[in-house]
Amino acid sequence: xxxxxxxxxxxxxxxxxxxxxxxxxxxxxxxxxxxxxxxxxxxxxxxxxxxxxxxxxxxxxxxxxxxxxxxxxxxxxxxxxxxxxxxxxxxxxxxxxxxxxxxxxxxxxxxxxxxxxxxxxxxxxxxxxxxxxxxxxxxxxxxxxxxxxxxxxxxxxxxxxxxxxxxxxxxxxxxxxxxxxxxxxxxxxxxxxxxxxxxxxxxxxxxxxxxxxxxxxxxxxxxxxxxxxxxxxxxxxxxxxxxxxxxxxxxxxxxxxxxxxxxxxxxxxxxxxxxxxxxxxxxxxxxxxxxxxxx
Amino acid sequence: xxxxxxxxxxxxxxxxxxxxxxxxxxxxxxxxxxxxxxxxxxxxxxxxxxxxxxxxxxxxxxxxxxxxxxxxxxxxxxxxxxxxxxxxxxxxxxxxxxxxxxxxxxxxxxxxxxxxxxxxxxxxxxxxxxxxxxxxxxxxxxxxxxxxxxxxxxxxxxxxxxxxxxxxxxxxxxxxxxxxxxxxxxxxxxxxxxxxxxxxxxxxxxxxxxxxxxxxxxxxxxxxxxxxxxxxxxxxxxxxxxxxxxxxxxxxxxxxxxxxxxxxxxxxxxxxxxxxxxxxxxxxxxxxxxxxxxxxxxxxxxxxxxxxxxxxxxxxxxxxxxxxxxxxxxxxxxxxxxxxxxxxxxxxxxxxxxxxxxxxxxxxxxxxxxxxxxxxxxxxxxxxxxxxxxxxxxxxxxxxxxxxxxxxxxxxxxxxxxxxxxxxxxxx
Lengths: 295, 428
What we know:
The complex is a heterodimer. Chain A is mostly helical.
């Protein structure tokens, strides 16, 4: 069977014999295929770790009955949209600055990238302290200016956005690096031609840099949107989905169900999350890649 | 990781030895493992008990392994039980959490052991399942209620309240004096449920049979006014402006500090906080008193009791006899003494023959009359296996003004229904 797959893929004969794929196939089967299908099965059971009894679609029915599921869904999409949007805008601006003839460019590039390297949990805990409503450095700083800072993480209407801001701070370095690579790869000829035609700096940006860095934009949006959809660690470290359910995302709802010992239900939730990501990301990638082809 | 590896290696070797059918030599050295949660007092007690036990049995060594507490710890315990990797002895909650471990399948029944005669009946009830009894108490009995700062009470000339109205009147006076009346610490959401849970003496007094009805799903929070009251208490305290400014971010440790240093007058909490208070604030420990959560009527005010965690033995233990000997030691007056020396005593012992020391701290002596006059009842989670996991988020919401009490109560009923469905709880 392995030989058959190898020789018929794309209708061409593979240069490798079938057994060559065996190790990879075994690893893939044991660590990826099996758990995937096992999770489809367990999502249909009442599973206590000690035993699993088949209960049909009840977990899915229960999952969609969750009173906080809608809120979690909205929060997830909102969070993904806000973080990826801000990463695109800020990442592009930073990349423009860091590709210009600025002093200490190497150092500045490194500084932008550093937060990406720090542990997410560490960042979360640090910002939780900084954002403390009365003793946090942010609000103490604001009070010096005579502004009464809000409860960044304790005000239910603000908590999700505070976490999103931290996510942007932490993740924007990666977006910047991708943009720098994209901008540097734009041939200099275009800028020279524009200069001869009397193009302004702003026109250069609008008609050359922006359209020609579209592949970078596509990468940044796809990466940060998927990252935003399945975000969990930062939210868990900062608010645990709180106050109440104000900053719950699907991932944190699923984790809480798992913590409560509702293993079948949380597995069903993961199947739903899998489908949701596929449904949202496949069209986004398709659109972005199609436009790219038109360049 | 290394530990797990070592353990599996050991079990493989043990298996090989068994296969060669050598006569079992009465080994000079028994080494056992013990899994406990990582709270500092849990570790202090475990270490003291192990050290004393090893002194009596020099041929035995017990390795203590720590795990996280809370939901994460629950999953570690469940996973290790399900895969047969559990330590020889482990520390785990009694009551509704224990029921989720399927004790009849996974734990060793101790009901026929002679040392169980020394364990109080009230505790045996919360570690029983079917005909079996599975654990011995790790600590004295605990209770939920209100810790209060006696210095503030003295300064303002206040009396310990016996009704909710008196309690709220005290809060008004404390607020007028410019002090935080009620400390709330929603930065750790579990602390937000104490007001509601500690009201259960009052609920069961007014609605006998609430626990059985709640278990079977016939009685609901939302349709039982006495039960909704618990949510309303939280809202009234928030609406009165009695809470500390940073209630949303403050944590448990902050709450204890504010109470001890007199920044706040009341802190709704469970008495397992007493050892932490007497360790961290030994100078102020006797300024801190305790009273049961006041009910609407003085005659309905009584103490809601929490049962401590237990030591349990999994069926898969390879050192069952020695593990039983350890549990017997824990359930003896000698064991109580070792515990009492390790951390401050925080309530009456659940083991026969154990005497409280004469010099207990103020909050413990405030607690004892409720045990002596019988005005106490176990909390709901010890008389029903149902405890919906989102309760703490709901109480945070009510306390932060996000959700109305009645709404929270009906969401909690829904959560309880879900838990019963997911865990396949009996009676539903």
